[in-house]
Amino acid sequence: MFCSNNGIRQSPSSSANIINLASLLLLVIIFLSGHVVFCDDTTPIPADAGGVNGWFNTNVKLAADRKGGLDPTLAAAEESPQVIKVRKDGSGDFSKICDAINSIPSGNTKRVIIWIGAGEYVEKIKIEAAKPFITFYGSPNAMPTISYSGTAYQYGTVDSASLIVDSDYFMAANIIIKNSAPRPDGVRKGAQAVALRISGTKAAFYKVRMIGFQDTLCDDKGYHFYKDCYIEGTVDFIFGRAKSLYVNTQLHVLGDTGMTMITAQARDTATEDCGYSFVHGQITGVGTGAYLGRAWMPSPRVIFAYTTMSSVVNPAGWDINFKPEREKTVYFAEYKCSGPGANPSGRVKYTKQLSEAEVQPFISLGYIQGSKWVLPPPTL
């Protein structure tokens, strides 16, 4: 027994009940005031592929529900988004995507959703660094296509992209991004042709299809998040030094004619904080000799977890690019992958089969500090 400040004697259990009730009331007040941060950097993506959407919906809430948790500039930008319509038939605000981008002022501080109507837009598009917070949105049942035929011979490899994004906080949903240049034949010089180069940080892609051959996606630098996407190509069709998390993304290999490599991650040293993590993806395609990645640079870091691999994957899995010394510096790893292309018995000796503890840093939003910036796609 003890005495309260007013001299009334209370039992310990009575006092505990009061404290618990007060704590509950405080949580309710916080919840109703809209200051609860739902996004979680630590909860791992579940092992069951059927739980991925539930994981995403639980951990990635709308900006309005996450006050205090988002980057301050992003939270402010999301308060009053603007929608610009692009329609090929002239019924929108603009008929060309480039014109819509040009209408956005440099130093933009608000989310601008460019709603792109159905059809193919043959444009070479670049979003400058001074224009952050831009979203490309297409209707799920009528996905527009951004297409151009630039090549490395014309522009240099990274500038050959049909879409170049240098700005931060970019988002794309339900868009097809294509480089329509012909497949490299080993004869034409500079035939590499990028579909998308993403060089701004904190960018998210939802149900985006990236179409090309060699160097399809230049995942250049910054934090990036991909979900439910499709990427196809032949050689190094995902390359760069970004730190990116790919969730439920299909990688489609166009093989049977020469060397095929999925990734060419460009980490220079073991201390550089970048790398690609693929979780619950599917590797499909044509041929049988595709490598998961090659050591284009000395210390690439690429992880495949819970990935279904078809027989298109070479049994060896990985390649050191004819540089034996890189066996000691690469970080090529797999965790609980499945399918005929995932058999660990044939893998090269320098690959890693991760333990449950070792894979944890690579299978949550924390890998890309996602709680501060990853948002769900808009619905229009």
Automatic annotation (TrEMBL):
Signal peptide (residue range): 1-39
Protein localization: Secreted, Cell wall
Principal location: secreted
E.C. numbers: 3.1.1.11
Domain of life where this protein originates: Eukaryota
Active site residues per record: 236
Record's keyword terms, sorted: Aspartyl esterase, Cell wall, Hydrolase, Secreted, Signal
Ranges for domain Pectinesterase catalytic: 85-370
Catalyzed reaction equations: [(1->4)-alpha-D-galacturonosyl methyl ester](n) + n H2O = [(1->4)-alpha-D-galacturonosyl](n) + n methanol + n H(+)
Segments traversing the membrane: none
InterPro entries, per the entry: Pectin_lyas_fold, Pectin_lyase_fold/virulence, Pectinesterase_Asp_AS, Pectinesterase_cat
The protein's annotated pathway: Glycan metabolism; pectin degradation; 2-dehydro-3-deoxy-D-gluconate from pectin: step 1/5
Pfam families to which the protein is assigned, alphabetical: Pectinesterase
GO biological process, one term: cell wall modification
Molecular function in Gene Ontology: pectinesterase activity
Family the entry assigns: Belongs to the pectinesterase family.
Name by which UniProt lists this protein: Pectinesterase
